[in-house]
Structure formats: structure tokens, C-alpha cells
Design brief:
Layout (H helix, E strand, L loop, with lengths): L3 E5 L5 H13 L4 E5 L6 H10 L7 E7 L4 H7 L5 E6 L7 H8 L8 E2 L3 H17 L3 H16 L1
Parallel strand pairs: 1-2, 1-3, 3-4, 4-5
Helix pairs in contact: 1-5, 2-3, 5-6
Length: about 150
Amino acid sequence: MALVGVVIGSKTDTELIQPALDTLKQLGIDYELSVISAHRNPEKLRGYGLEAEKRGLKVIIAAAGRAAHLPGVLASWTTLPVIGVPLPTSELKAIDALLSISQMPGGVPVACMGIGKSGAKNAALLAAQILGTEHKEIREAYRKYKQELAKG
């Protein structure tokens, strides 16, 4: 069963979120990938947010470019932790998305990662840290990852 929901607003964002998917797989964390636009299909996104916890998800990674409403809208419909990843899909190279994700109104928290592929990877690692508080095997996989990272 998937523990992490990864949501992107467009199929064209798949390449940019791929490092998150690779990292989740490397750490043995089951995930689901969904393409749901906050602007083009808000009702589907609402349903996803409302049903996420019932389906067993524990964390949501939401990646978006431009106005980047996706993470905030999801956070408004769920009590699960939402990790936002700003994607460089506009002429502003994700500065617009970064500001949008990092400026959530009080009461609607979204963890904001860095821009692009490195931010996507860090989103997966943060999800692993969150899940590791309850799942020993994920905590150990993350610990091993950190040890390997320290070796250079």
C-alpha cells in the first residue's frame, strides 16, 4: 500500500519529479503518482485530498510550477503533511512557484523544498524522515542512506 502520494499538475512535470520517485524507490517506500491540476480539475484534486488518509497515505508530495497552487490546495483538503516542490516551468525559472509555495497563509502549512530536481529528491527524503518516526524499516533505510552519503 502506498504511504506517499506524489501529485503533479501536468504529465510534462514527470521528468522534474523523477528524482523523488527514484529516491522513494531506493528507500523502499511505496508511493502513488497522480496527475491532477489544481486549476484544470479542482474537484478531482479536492476528492484526492479528502480521501488520501482513508486510502492509507501518510505524506503527500505536491510539485508545481508557475503559480503553484497545487500544494496549498491539497493542504487545505487534508490533515496529512504536504511537501511542496517548486518546478522550473515558467520564464521566472520557479521563483514564482517558490514564493507561492513558501507563502501559505497561517493555518495551511506546506513544507517548501528547493527548486527543481534537487528539491524533488529532498521532498522524498523529508517524507522518509516523517515516515521513519513510525516505520522502523524506513528509518533504517534512511539511516543507511545518510551513512552512504557521509562516505562521499
